Fold:
Amino acid sequence: MRFAPFLFWAVVVVALLLPSLRRRMWPRRPVTDELVKDPVCQTYVVRSRAISRWRAGEPVYFCSAECLRRYAALT
Ligand SMILES: [Zn+2]
Structure:
């Protein structure tokens, strides 16, 4: 039980430092989680989970493969 106070403070220090460490290691994460609009069903999707296709030099994002298929059929 001699190490119990040390372990407690180690956990407290790690818990306090972890958010700033994560921000330093992945600073672009909030940008990749930006919301994008699906042009087919008008739904907003998180960019990292959306299906993207390049059209006329710009990325277009879809919520599902079904919307991508419908978009491809329209254009
Ligand atoms: Zn959709």
About this structure: The CA atoms of residues 40 and 71 lie 6 Å apart. Helices lie at 4-25, 29-32, 65-74.
